[in-house]
Amino acid sequence: MSERELSPAVVIGTGLVGASVAHALSRAGVEVHLIDQAPSHAQVAASRGAGTVDPADPVQVRLVVVAVPPKALATVIADALATYPQATVTDVGSVKGTVLATLRGSVADLSRYVGSHPMAGSQRVGPLTANAELFIDRTWVITPHDTSAAHAVLDVQELASLCGARRVTMGAAHHDEAVAQVSHLPHLVSVLMAGSLTRVPAEHLRLAGQGLRDVTRIAGSDPQLWRQIIDANSTAVLTELRLLRDELSALVDDFDNPDVLAAALQRGLDGTRALPGKHGLSATNYARVVVEIPDTPGALASLFADIQAAGVNIEDLSIDHDLEREVGWLAVQVTPQSADELAAAMTAAGWVVRDREPQA
Ligand SMILES: NC(=O)c1ccc[n+]([C@@H]2O[C@H](COP(=O)([O-])OP(=O)(O)OC[C@H]3O[C@@H](n4cnc5c(N)ncnc54)[C@H](O)[C@@H]3O)[C@@H](O)[C@H]2O)c1
Ligand SMILES: O=C(O)C(=O)C[C@]1(C(=O)O)C=C[C@@H](O)C=C1
């Protein structure tokens, strides 16, 4: 149950993020009403247990979560503030400053509005891709403004907590500068890399391994949504793009100097180590144990049961699929001290352990 009363809540925009919030709130016992410009999206989300499409009594509503594309945010937030007179209104948009500026120009009293942004999502869209676990242990940025009421900030903090996220509070402009660096520039780099594959012959693409898939996953996102995100934060993104262009130019210009390449590779490694690890703690060096799994129903469940029986804590995991054979590989990341023990237990349980390697 919720520490603060957020019930009943309304979620407007029931795609990936909105429906995921709705699932998480419903699971926490909050009564959730779903609204979407495409009624079928709200119906699909409701049929999967995210809430109800029955309308809420507007005066009873305590919380409204707006999860529509960036261009529509300011209008929908302003409408929600007018329609639900007692509710705290938040949004989950990827950019905060431009939305706040538009609202300041159109809404007299913004005290019940507090922006927010869960740093979790995927390259997919729509209610079928939603899940209640999306935000667990992920960062949820809360961006109060100078006239946000304290109770509204507490409501949004409670929302993030009910979704299982770690809260970070900062101003809208600071948020936008940060996400240009950690989300929007990475997105564009992934897009440029994936775009370059359109000139690579198919026979070469067959050689692609997990590395290329890691680098290009987010380029598979909805171009329309991302056009709106980048447009809404264009000044900060352009600053980052220019810095990266200068770094790329310096590498190209001095490419025959082995020290320049060595420095670039080392800097990349330093960058990966600077990233916080699980639960926001500093990055840990895990070891990877890679186990082959047949592509059959129940194989993963029985593998997880054997890992649990071995008593080893999984820190992270990923699955890679063989393009030719009907198998996949589950790479389980564990502390270096547990890797030998896990590899031995897996082998004893009849699994094929392909690799056991320390990870930088
Ligand atoms: N995709 C991500 O990884 C991610 C992560 C965090 C935040 N966000 C932000 O969340 C918001 C939603 O993104 P998403 O990925 O869930 O997209 P989505 O396309 O899955 O969902 C958007 C939903 O909003 C509905 N919609 C559009 N205009 C509307 C309107 N005027 N009124 C009511 N409903 C409307 C659409 O029909 C759709 O169901 C965006 O602002 C995005 O910046 C996205
Ligand atoms: O695709 C993912 O894994 C994401 O988490 C997407 C991601 C991100 O860049 O971190 C993308 C945009 C959102 O505003 C928040 C999250």
Tell me what you see in this structure:
46% of the residues lie in helices and 16% in strands. It is globular and about 60 Å long. The strands form 3 sheets. Strands 2-1-3-4 form a 4-stranded parallel beta sheet, sandwiched between helices. It has 13 helices and 11 strands. The two termini are 41 Å apart. It folds into 3 domains: 9-170, NAD(P)-binding Rossmann-like Domain (Rossmann fold, 3-Layer(aba) Sandwich), CATH 3.40.50; 176-278, 6-phosphogluconate dehydrogenase C-terminal like domain (6-phosphogluconate dehydrogenase C-terminal fold), CATH 1.10.3660; 287-358, ACT domain (Alpha-Beta Plaits, 2-Layer Sandwich). α12 packs across α13. Bound molecules: nicotinamide-adenine-dinucleotide and prephenic acid. Nicotinamide-adenine-dinucleotide (NAD) is lined by residues 12-18, 36-38, 41, 67-70, 72, 76, 92-94, 118, 121-122, 125-126, 225, 229. Keywords: Amino-acid biosynthesis, Aromatic amino acid biosynthesis, NAD, Oxidoreductase, Tyrosine biosynthesis. GO terms for molecular function: NAD+ binding; prephenate dehydrogenase (NAD+) activity; prephenate dehydrogenase (NADP+) activity. It catalyses: prephenate + NAD(+) = 3-(4-hydroxyphenyl)pyruvate + CO2 + NADH.
Q: What's the layout of helices and strands?
A:
Elements lengths: L8 E4 L3 H12 L4 E4 L3 H9 L15 E4 L3 H14 L4 E4 L5 H10 L8 E4 L20 E5 L6 H13 L3 E4 L2 H25 L5 H4 L4 H7 L6 H10 L1 H20 L4 H17 L12 E8 L4 H12 L5 E6 L5 E8 L1 H13 L3 E7 L2
The structure holds nicotinamide-adenine-dinucleotide and prephenic acid.
